[in-house]
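Contributing new complexes? Match this layout with uridine-5'-diphosphate.
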Amino acid sequence: MNRKEMLYEGKAKKVYATDDPEILLVDYKDDATAFNGQKKGTIAGKGAINNRVTNFMMRLLEKEGVPTHFVKEISDRETLVKKVSIIPLEVIIRNISAGSFAKHYGVEEGIVFPEPTIEFSYKNDELGDPLINEYHAFALGLASKEEIAEIKRLAFKVNDVMKAYFKSLNVDLVDFKLEFGRLSDGSVVLADEISPDTCRFWDSETHEKLDKDRFRRDLGNVEDAYEEMMKRIFGK
Ligand code: ADP
Ligand code: UDP
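Output block (do not edit by hand):
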């Protein structure tokens, strides 16, 4: 499949057209941003790690019955995906308090919830991705009620699968962000990425952070954290 014109360059990935109008090529970059693009940097090797980790997770989720955009990994950093129209909602699932949840409600990080929570942000960089509820998402025409119900069902399913998988690697899945899109037939599938950029991973014993918080919070050993996750998943 030939890579054609670049359609979009985001903060972490470039998206290209291909010979097939239904298929896109995603190219993962080492660039890292935080706080809505205010903090910028690079994390050496991140693009290749996020590509491989995302594809591993997408394959695992497909096996467990979650439809995804994944088609084929074609190199270290490049993957073919089904083109979707992205539903502009960041879907966030939390198992343990951290980040904006802890800040919002004035609680410490690390509270294990009795059951997972879900929230949505309106994916809009100019507005700073504000929190949005289902009624407002529907009012704004971002998604139908059926789509919102399907997104919630799939997001909790993704959590069940990922939480159990990461526990087997001695990693607690604290929280993560998902994006969903519509295929040309209107069906909803999981899109974008699942990686240390978009998940919080804590070592189950030491509680060491193995994700992008090391970059956001200047904790050091950022590359090591990404490589450690890679090692636990792929065993090297
Ligand atoms: P951002 O736009 O937040 O800077 P990225 O750098 O990750 O993010 O850019 C990738 C873009 O591609 C995102 O806007 C994401 O929503 C979009 N995207 C992810 N998967 C697909 C897909 N299968 N089809 C179309 N767009 C997608
Ligand atoms: N997240 C993300 N992209 C965003 C916002 C959040 O991938 O634009 C992920 C983040 O990595 C974390 C989870 O979603 O795993 C919850 O993030 P939170 O709301 O706590 O925000 P943050 O602390 O990143 O501001």
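Reviewers usually confirm one structural detail per submission. For this one: The helical segments are 46-63, 99-105, 134-139, 145-167, 213-216, 222-234.
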